[in-house]
Amino acid sequence: MAGDNHSIEDELVKFEEKYAKILSQDPSSVTFIFLAQVLHKQGKVDKAIKVLINGLKYNRNSVTGRFLLGKIYYDRWLIEQAKREFQAVIELAPDNLAACKMLVQIHKSEEAYGRAHELLKTALAYHPHDASIMTEMAEIEALLSTADKREREFKSARENIRAALESKSAEELETGLKQQEKELFTETIADIYIAQGLYEKACGVLEKMLEKDPDNDAVSKKLAQSRLYLINKSAGLIRGE
User: Fold this and answer.
1) 71-75 contact pairs (CB < 8 A, 24+)
2) N or C: which end of the chain has fewer CB within 10 A?
3) Which fold has domain 2-112?
4) Domain range annotation of the chain
């Protein structure tokens, strides 16, 4: 097995040298695609990208070159660059299903389901008997339905909040805001006391909070914990401030 691996590596090196020599003599040669593929297989990804970019300067309409570059970008999660190359492939060859499916995956990851669906509709026109396209379209349609439902729920909630705010007077809004600030400040003070080991003071704050809101489970638990800390501190089991 080790010998086979060395043999493959040696072959790749020979191909790299061969294609690199051709390109050095003719930079516009389509050999750039083969060299990039060899470099990619060798793990020389950055070098493969440079070869593809340079080769595409001379061969702008190379579908294979652009798809390979897009795939390398995608594997590196350089999504914007990948989208650009796959889109160029589709513009050059609208029936290119591989580029279409790569773009669909990208749009799905961005939750751009409408764009993904349009791409699949176009692909289906070129490949009307491809079951994988129809399956993908059904999945996208389900995602679109879910996204539309979420959007409607969000708009409804936003309108309800707006209506509730508009129904309150300025005094009511100000009073509510002050009350929220007061509650937040009180809880914050209690947490600061606990962090500093001032458990007796923390208990005092929390007890006052419970007087106003006796059903507040969170405050009750925090008070019980603070009292336990206070007992342990008195027993010398933990250090205070």
Assistant:
1) 71/102, 72/40, 72/45, 72/48, 73/49, 74/102, 74/106
2) N
3) 1.25.40
4) 2-112, 169-234
